[in-house]
Amino acid sequence: MKNLFSIRGILLHSAATTLGLIWLMTLSVLAQSNPSPGKPQTKPVWITGAIIHDAVNPPYPGVIGFDKGEIVYVGRGAEIRLDAVNSEIIDARGQHVYPGFIALHTLLGLYEIESVRATRDHTESGTLNPHVHALIAYNSDSRIVPTVRNHGVLLAQIAPEGGLISGRSAVVQLDAWNWEDACIKAADGMYLQWPSMSNSTGPRAPSAEEQNKARNLTLGSLEQYLNEARDYHLQNPNNDPSGNQRPINLKLASASGLWNGQTKVFVRVGDAKGMVAAVEFFARWNLKPVLVGAEEADQIQDWLAAQKIDLILTKVHRLPNRDGDPVYSAYDAPARLARAGVRFGFSMDGAWNQRNLPYQAGHAVGFGLDTLRALQALTLDAARILGIEGRYGSLEVGKSATLFLSTGDALDMRGNNPTHAFVDGRRVNLDDKQKALYRKFSEKYEIPAR
Fold first, then answer.
1. Where would you tag: which of 2, 257, 317, 388 has the fewest CB atoms within 10 A of its CB?
2. Residue 393 CA to chain centroid, in angstroms?
3. Does pLDDT of 242 surpass 60?
4. Rounded CA gap, 316 and 334, in Å?
5. Which helix (H) or strand (E) holds 89?
6. Where are the beta strands (DSSP E) in 259-352?
7. Nearest to 419 by CA among 400, 435, 443, 440
8. How many helices (H) and strands (E) are present in the chain, helices listed first?
9. CA 161 vs CA 104, 134, 145, 216, 342: distances in Å
10. What region, left, alpha or beta, does residue 86 occupy, with left being phi > 0 and alpha being psi -120 to 50 degrees?
11. What is the DSSP letter of 111?
12. How far apart are CA 260 and CA 270, in angstroms?
């Protein structure tokens, strides 16, 4: 026994030491400072000579100007006489200017190092968590964020995971000191995980009756919550306890945005049967969900178009879900959905791989999706899905100057090379840890600078 306790003590001490070292290394990595957020715009900026991709019209050569964070001119510029003394003029001949890309349904800022639990803050325990705010967990100092900005992604919808109701998502801009400064829309959506509508098979799978019962219980609990939340809102529409002498019920009050149109329902569901079931389920409360994932949306594309259901497509770079489908079925699905009249945006799983978001759209272009339609899925249509199209998503007079310049086609990884980026008119520092490492080892191995 004595030896057993001694060995156990050694093992526990060794494990604690190892975890401590991992945590210290993590703190060291996270403590390295990111580039500071840009300062407010102090004078007008004019970008001349660039090819303008405004997300509304086909690209054309022209001029774009913005002041105090707002676009004041977009056009061919023949009538513009620039004041070089009181303005900053960027000669962008040969470059392309785009609206900032929008990452939908992402863990960016909620997830840092996959193997270190302390850096993952994207899930909560429990099944019904409508009161959980992803926004307050957003880490504006994430080392991943600058690497994503350097691919033109300047806005993101951060979404929680876990349970039946995961919580509320938020829209943030990616150049901020803290989550308060980053916030564009605090509770744009409520995220849910739809149960599978198909029964599992196999020697260890529960019986079909048991699986049906479990599914019905899950949907029954969701139905009960929605009924109670709607009744609570009707009795207390302003969430003010003074009118009825009772404290606020946070779980029920969190759904108030669903009933006043401020919050959308985002449902993670991939199979066609589940998508139909989810749309019909929420129609009972006059709610129109946004379907996230939607891997089999092409099977019911005409029905989705008729119902005017928005989609967030994930994993364009994937193998087909169904036996017998062509290997490119996921690649050309966006083109088929667009021809059917379905509105959609693009998404990537995880956090660091959001830098590959533009190339999901570019890959779809290679398989038949119109280039303007692909750009809109990253910008204007994504903004419409989030309800922020009045301010973001396109280069139009009166909208936010959230945009970037690229030396080439930003939907092509060979051409996506941002040289300038602005968020609400503030210039973004485009340095990041990957560029710092490249400079470091270029010096060591005497590699010519790019």
1. 2
2. 13
3. no
4. 8
5. strand 88-91
6. 264-269, 290-293, 311-314, 344-347
7. 435
8. 13, 16
9. 14, 9, 19, 21, 26
10. alpha
11. B
12. 28
HEC assignment per residue over 204-260: CCCCHHHHHHHHHHHHHHHHHHHHHHHHHHHHCCCCCHHHCCCCCCHHHHCCHHHHH
Say what the pLDDT of residue 12 is: 43
239: left (phi over 0), alpha (psi -120 to 50) or beta: left
Per residue in 84-120, pLDDT (tens digit) is 788 999 999 999 999 999 999 999 999 888 777 777 8
Residue tagged 């060794």 (tokens) = 14
CATH fold group of domain 101-388: TIM Barrel (3.20.20)
pLDDT, tens only, 41-82: 999 999 999 999 999 999 999 999 999 999 999 999 888 888
Whether pLDDT at 335 is above 70: yes
**Is the pLDDT reported for residue 11 higher than 50?**
no
Q: How confident is the model at residue 244 (pLDDT cuts 50, 70, 90)?
A: low
Question: Tokens 């070089």 sit at which residue?
Answer: 84
Closest by CA to 159, choosing from 102, 106, 120, is 106
Rounded distance, CA 167 to CA 151, Å? Answer: 28
Neighbour tally for 150: CB within 10 Å? 20
For residue 187, the SS3 value is strand
The DSSP bridge partners found for residue 51 are 61, 96
Give residues with Cβ within 8 angstroms of 245, minimum separation 6.
none
CB under 8 Å to 418, separation ≥6 — which residues? 149, 150, 151, 152, 404, 405, 406, 410, 430
Write down the domain spans for the chain: 101-388
Tokens of 363: 């890959």
Q: C-alpha dihedral over 280, 284, 290, 296, to 10 degrees?
A: -10
Whole-angstrom Cα Rg for the chain: 24
Inform me whether the pLDDT recorded for 428 exceeds 60. Answer: yes
Element (H, E) at 121: none
Return the amino acid letter for 48: T
| Pairing state between β 88-91 and 45-52 | parallel
Which alpha helices (DSSP H) does 105-184 contain, by range? Answer: 144-149, 179-182
Identify whether the C-beta of residue 118 lies closer than 8 Å to the C-beta of residue 65. Answer: no
What does pTM read for this prediction?
0.88
Backbone angles phi, psi at 240, to 5 degrees: -105, 110
Q: Are 63 and 46 in contact (CB under 8 A)?
A: yes
| Cβ atoms 168, 374 nearer than 8 A | no
